[in-house]
Amino acid sequence: MTTLARRLNAFDATMIVMGGIIGSGIFINPYVVARQVHSAPLILGAWTAGGVIALLGAFVYAELAAIRPEAGGQYAYLRDAYHPAAAFMYGWVLLLVIQSGGMAAVAVTFARYTIELTGIHAPDWTIATATLIVLTLINCLGVRSGSNAQSLLMVLKLLAIAMLLGAAFMFFGKSQLTMHPLIDHGGLLMRFAAAMTPVMFAYGGWQTATFMSGELVRPGRDLAIGLVVGVLGVIAIYVGVNVVCLMALGTNGLAATTTPASAVMRLAFGPRGGQLIALGIAISTLGFLSQGMLTAPRVYYAMAHDKLFFKAVARVHPTTRVPIVAIALQGAAAIVIALSGTYEQILGYVVSSDFLFFGLTGLAVFRFRGRNAAHPIGTVIFVLACWLVVAGTVVAAPLNSAIGYAILLAGLPAYWFWSRAKSAPTA
Predict the structure, then answer these.
(1) Is the pLDDT of residue 371 over 70?
(2) Which of 3, 43, 234, 397 measures 20 to 30 Å from 190, CA to CA?
(3) Residue 416's CB: how many other CB atoms inside 10 A?
(4) What is the pTM of this model?
C-alpha cells in the first residue's frame, strides 16, 4: 500500500503556519477593533493579547506534535486522547463548515479583487471556481509541488505586508499615533472582549500545519519550530501593521474607514498605492487558499485510513504520493459552497465549533501527560481562553451557534454508520 511521502522540512512548516494565519483579515480587521475600543493602547493590546493566546496554542500543539507525530495532526490528537468519534466529528465539521466554508469565502474575495484589478467582465463565481480547480490540480501533483506553491505565495504575501509596513517612513514627524491615558466610560471589558473576536479570527489557522505531520521529515522537531517561529512572526507583523495604521490614520481615522490598508497606502503613495495593496490582498487570499488545499485533505485521508470514511479517500497516488481523492474532495466541497452562495452563512457557524475543538485539543495534553504530571500554566490559560470564546459566541450569536452545533451533531449518525461498517465481518 502506497503511503504519504515525508518530504517537508522546518522551513516548509513555518511557511505553512504563517500561510494558514495570514489571509485578508489583517488588511481589513484593524478598523473593526478600533471601533470597539477607541484607544491606541487598547487596539495594540488586543492584537498583542490575541498573539499571546495563539502562541500559547502553538506551544500546546508543538508538544502534541512531539507526542503524536502521525498523519492527521489535530485529528490524531483527538482520536488518541478521547475516542475515534471525537476525531471523526472534528473532520466532519472541518469538511462541511470550517475549512470548506472559509475557502469558498476567500475564493470569492480573491475573484472580486481580480475583477477590480484587471477589469475583466466575468462573474466572481467563475474565477473562484477556476482558482480552486487549479489549486486542486497543483496539490495533486505532489506534496513538494503544493508546498512550493504555498511557500512562493507566502513570500509574495510577506512582500506586500513589507510594503505596507514600509509606508510608516512616510509618516515620521506627522504621526497620528497617540498614547493618551485611557478614560473608562463604562463597559470597557465588554468592548475589549468584542474587539478580541475579529482579532482571534485573524490569528486563526496556525493549527492546520499539524495536519501535515505525516509528510514532515522530522515531525516532532520541524512542526514545533514551524509553529513557534511562524506564530511569533505573525505577531510581529500584525502589531506592526496596526502601528502603521495608527500612525497614518489615528484612532478615529482607523475606526472611520472599512479599508484601512488601502487608506494607508493611498495616503503614502497616492492612487498607485491603493492598487498595489489590492494586488497584495489578492495574493494573500490566494496564498490562504493554497495553504488550505495543501493541509485539510490530510484529515479526510486520516479518517478514511481509520476506515471511518469513504475507502477511496485514503487512496494515495503511487507516483505523487499524495491523497489525490481527499484533495479533490476538498476542492469540490469548496466549489459547491462557492457556487451556492451560502458561504457567508456558513462562516457564521465556524467560531463556536472551531474553538470547541481547540479547547478539547488543549485538554488532550493533560490526557497524554497523565493525571499526576506537572502541567504548564500556559496550557490552562489557552484552554480557558478557548472556552471563553465559545461561551461568548453562543451568547452573542445563539442562532448561528445552534446551527453550527446541529451540523456537528449530524456527524454522530454518520460516525455510527462507518464504525458499524468497519466492524462488520467481511466475506
Answers:
(1) no
(2) 234
(3) 12
(4) 0.84
